[in-house]
Automatic annotation (TrEMBL):
<dbReference type="InterPro" id="IPR058163">
    <property type="entry name" value="LysR-type_TF_proteobact-type"/>
</dbReference>
<keyword id="KW-0804">Transcription</keyword>
<dbReference type="InterPro" id="IPR000847">
    <property type="entry name" value="LysR_HTH_N"/>
</dbReference>
<dbReference type="InterPro" id="IPR005119">
    <property type="entry name" value="LysR_subst-bd"/>
</dbReference>
<keyword id="KW-0238">DNA-binding</keyword>
<dbReference type="GO" id="GO:0043565">
    <property type="term" value="F:sequence-specific DNA binding"/>
</dbReference>
<keyword id="KW-0805">Transcription regulation</keyword>
<comment type="similarity">
    <text>Belongs to the LysR transcriptional regulatory family.</text>
</comment>
<dbReference type="InterPro" id="IPR036390">
    <property type="entry name" value="WH_DNA-bd_sf"/>
</dbReference>
<protein>
    <submittedName>
        <fullName>DNA-binding transcriptional activator GcvA</fullName>
    </submittedName>
</protein>
<dbReference type="InterPro" id="IPR036388">
    <property type="entry name" value="WH-like_DNA-bd_sf"/>
</dbReference>
<feature type="domain" description="HTH lysR-type">
    <location>
        <begin position="6"/>
        <end position="63"/>
    </location>
</feature>
<dbReference type="GO" id="GO:0006351">
    <property type="term" value="P:DNA-templated transcription"/>
</dbReference>
<dbReference type="Pfam" id="PF03466">
    <property type="entry name" value="LysR_substrate"/>
</dbReference>
<dbReference type="Pfam" id="PF00126">
    <property type="entry name" value="HTH_1"/>
</dbReference>
<dbReference type="GO" id="GO:0003700">
    <property type="term" value="F:DNA-binding transcription factor activity"/>
</dbReference>
Length: 296
């Protein structure tokens, strides 16, 4: 049975006018005249036999019918735009785009990428740390490293590593007037926070430490910046196993206490099931697991 569709060429004009509530702004966005927008919408209304806009002297507003129709048209156009991008985008066989968090990229991935490039010099790697959860459809992402529960519908998800969380600091804080010997000594030092789910309140409670303000100190949006502040001796941060191992190994950071909290989330390698057939994706996947194995 054939679909009953509206005049498709009128839909972009209607969607833009509905979004701006202005025929003039819609015309500017679409690089057409005000009259072209007006005629397109009038034609659409005649074809549907409904009124989509209440027209005032200097303004327009959507009618009770126009408002839900505008939402439906916008969603349909968005889906069509994504499908068009997927259909027309030719992904390079030699460029691999990896999506991950800024913290994982800065503290674990980037310091090791030279080894991947050395083994696969023909593959150019692009690292995306936008914070937006990729859908692998039209966004150009080939493979992602995600932090969560591992259940990602329709995608292949491979466990990489879990992590523990415990305080870390510069070796300089282990000496001086108030050396860090027990958790209670934290009251003499600045607490560094970064918005991670396991925060100082959770760690202090698990360690049985009371009388400290877990919300004071320094706060960063970036985990990388928070750890760098700890390296510089600005205070004590909560170190995540995978993301501080390099600084610990190099002696830039130390763990003053043994007590650690086990994180509920873990790192996973995520990609569309068919993506593993691509040489660049499989090469990166195998290299990543090899690095994880060397790190123990």
């Amino acid at each position: 049975m054939p679909r009953k569709l509206p005049p498709l060429t009128a839909l972009p004009a209607f969607e833009a006018a509905a979004r701006h509530l202005s025929f003039t702004k819609a015309a500017e966005e679409l690089f057409v005249t005000h009259g072209a927008i007006s005629r397109a919408i009038k034609n659409l209304e005649q074809q549907l036999d409904v009124t989509l806009f209440d027209r005032g002297t200097r303004s327009v507003r959507l009618t009770a019918i126009g408002e839900p129709y505008a939402r439906a048209v916008r969603e349909a156009l968005d889906h069509l735009a994504v499908a068009t991008a997927v259909a027309t985008t030719r992904r390079s066989d030699t460029t691999l785009t990896v999506s991950t968090s800024g913290g994982f990229a800065g503290k674990w991935l980037v310091p090791r990428l030279y080894r991947f490039h050395r083994a696969h010099s023909e593959i150019d790697v692009r690292v995306s740390t936008t914070g937006t959860l990729t859908n692998f459809s039209g966004d150009g992402i080939d493979i992602a490293i995600r932090y969560g529960g591992g259940d990602y519908s329709g995608l292949t998800s491979e466990f990489l590593a879990g992590e523990d969380v415990s305080p870390v600091c510069s070796p300089r804080l282990m000496a001086g007037k108030h050396p860090l010997r027990t958790a209670e000594d934290l009251k003499y030092h600045t607490l560094i926070r970064d918005g991670y789910p396991i925060d100082w309140a959770a760690w202090l409670e698990s360690a049985g430490v009371t009388g400290l303000d877990p919300n004071g100190g320094l706060t960063f949006d970036s985990y990388t910046f928070a750890i760098e502040a700890a390296v510089q001796g600005e205070g004590v941060a909560l170190g995540r196993t995978m993301l501080v191992e390099g600084d610990l190994a190099a002696g830039r950071l130390v763990r003053p206490f043994e007590h650690a909290l086990k994180a509920q989330s873990s790192f996973y390698l995520v990609y569309p099931p068919d993506a593993i057939r691509q040489r660049k994706v499989k090469a990166f996947r195998d290299w990543l697991f090899s690095e994880m194995g060397e790190d123990g």
